[in-house]
Amino acid sequence: MVAPASSWKEAEENLLSCTAQIMNQAVEILRSGSISDSSYRFESKVIAGSTPGKHFRHVLDHLRILTDAIADWQTRIKTDAKAVLRVDYDSRIASKLPHIETSVAASLREFERTTDRLYRVFDGSHGRLYTQPLRLCATTPFVVEMDSTVGRELWFCGLHAIHHYALARVILVKELELKGVDDQFGVAPSTLVHREWRKESNRADTAHDALSQGRNDELPSSSQSSSSQQPSPSSGPSHGQSARASRSPHSHRQHQFKSKL
Question: How far is the C-alpha of 245 from the C-alpha of 239, rounded, in Å?
Fold first, then answer.
């Protein structure tokens, strides 16, 4: 259904583009004028202590932490060949930009700035950053470290963003009943691909059914078949049997195709 990337460079480009598109989901809804500052700060009755702005800010926190860590490592590696790239999402940087969870305009600027910075840290990588090892720090509450890669963490940031967009969507659409929120906002890339694939599959089914119906209409009716002379055992297959036989491989493939849905 989806072809794999042919190189680390292509994989990096695809993942970077996907992450940028996920970030752009926020940019578009913030730029649309559908959300006012009061809606952005609205405290959910369903998700305790939650506001749309807090979810957007949390998305930014993670991607900013990752891009900051990469940029810092890129500076250190120039003078220290053994410099280790470390990422700690539990480090608190939200207090530096508290207004991005209360102001739509401020949040929009930060999403645009962060997306631009993401492209800058990957500029000239040609796939090398995609496989670059890093040490991921986590508070569990004890601080532990584990191995990961930049590509893996970039994908995590994208999926993490989708999760929080979906929560923000619950508040905006279900609680505030806002109009103009795009249907694709808060939907994972894999789900969007699957939806498009199902659409194409349904179109193929419809076309095949129409073609099959047209062929069936051309066959003799049962009354005509019964009144015609029956073939002897030594005779070859009837016209209807030949038509069914000629269609059977196609029908079998269609059955296999549908079984995958």
Answer: 10
